[in-house]
Amino acid sequence: MNRVVYWLVSGFIALMLISSMVFVVDQRRFALVFALGEVKDVIATPGLHFKLPPPFQNVVYLDKRILTLDTPDADRFITAEKKNILVDAFVKWRIVNPKLYYVSFTGDASRAKDRMSQIVKAALNDEITKRTVREVISGERAKVMEAVRVKVANDAAQIGVQIVDVRLKRVDYIEQINNSVYERMKAERTRVANELRSTGAAESEKIRADADRQRTVILAEAFRDAEKIKGEGDAKASQIYSEAFGKNPEFYKFYRSLEAYRNTFNKQSDVMVLDSNSEFFKYFKNPGAGK
User: Fold this and answer.
1) Residues 204 and 259 placed together within one structural domain of the fold
2) For residues 78 and 128, what is the distance between their CA atoms, to the nearest angstrom?
3) 3 state SS of 177
4) Which of 101, 215, 228, 278 has its CA 20 to 30 A from that of 196?
5) Is the pLDDT of residue 143 over 50?
6) Quick one: 206 and 169 in the same domain?
7) What is the sign of the dihedral through the CA atoms of 238, 239, 244 and 250?
8) Per the domain annotation, does 181 fall within a domain?
């Protein structure tokens, strides 16, 4: 019985010893093998590996995937025009020298992120201070990102990090500048609106004046044509009257007298005081004179 227990205990100890000497490296991680606090080996090949049992050797793992450094708040920078803008950027990075990275930050990931944030901020400050607001926001945004990436890559290489990409998520004015920009845009739009109103009013007056001119011309031409037709009619009537008068002058006088009587005595209230021997009553006294 004692021998069985002895072999079970020995087997368990041997199993624990073997398990402490075996470790698995995932394809997404680096493995740093330490011996008495010093990095002895860096393993990047995935698979099963062996080491000495603790405390002689131990293993620390580092992520080899592309990571993202994204600050929660935008940073303030000053442009070449001495104007403040807010810039929100993010960085894609990965560890390419695990030993240098670990030694630089003693394995503290927060220290590594703080260091890279400082590098990115310094590079952004160098590039933005050389450019105007317009260039940073739209004109040379791609150039700014590329220049920042190159500068950050050179500094990050010294701590075992490769910078894959640098992007500006948002570039905006601070609140005070936003208000001034909005006021300037409002004033510009108001000026354009006033110019359009003035142009519209001028065009309206021009169209109205042209319409009035055309109306005056049309009325004048219509009056001219009417007077012409009226004149032609009067001439024709005069010609007819003249021809009728020439054929029978006495009858013409009689007919004209009848028209005069009709127009004169068309109302009962009309009163005329004339001499009975007046020429007006010629055909009253002698009706047969017009035959």
Assistant:
1) no
2) 7
3) helix
4) 215
5) yes
6) no
7) positive
8) no
Nearest Cα to 160, choosing from 114, 69, 68, 94?
Answer: 94
pTM over 0.90: no
180 domain-assigned: no
Structurally, the chain folds into a number of domains equal to 4
Is 148 part of any domain? Answer: yes
Tokens standing for residue 206 = 């021009």
DSSP assignments along 212-224, one per residue: HHHHHHHHHHHHH
Nearest to 166 by CA among 151, 154, 148, 140: 148
Residue 85 is encoded by which pair of tokens? 């803008």
Q: CA 132 to CA 265: how far, in whole Å?
A: 101
Specify if 178 maps to a domain: no
Neighbours of 177 (CB within 10 A): 15
The backbone torsions φ and ψ at residue 94, rounded to the nearest 5 degrees and listed phi first, read -155, 160
- pLDDT of amino acid 290: 47
- Closest residue by Cα to residue 171 from 60, 87, 63: 87
- Same-domain check for residues 116 and 72: yes
Cα 98 to Cα 48, 69, 116, 246, distances in angstroms: 19, 18, 16, 136
Question: Is residue 91 within 8 Å of 144, Cβ to Cβ?
Answer: no
Q: How far apart, in whole angstroms, are the C-alpha atoms of residue 127 and residue 123? A: 6
Structural domain that includes position 139: 67-173
Q: Are residues 227 and 257 in the same domain?
A: no
Residue 20: which of 45, 57, 74, 63 has the closest Cα? 57
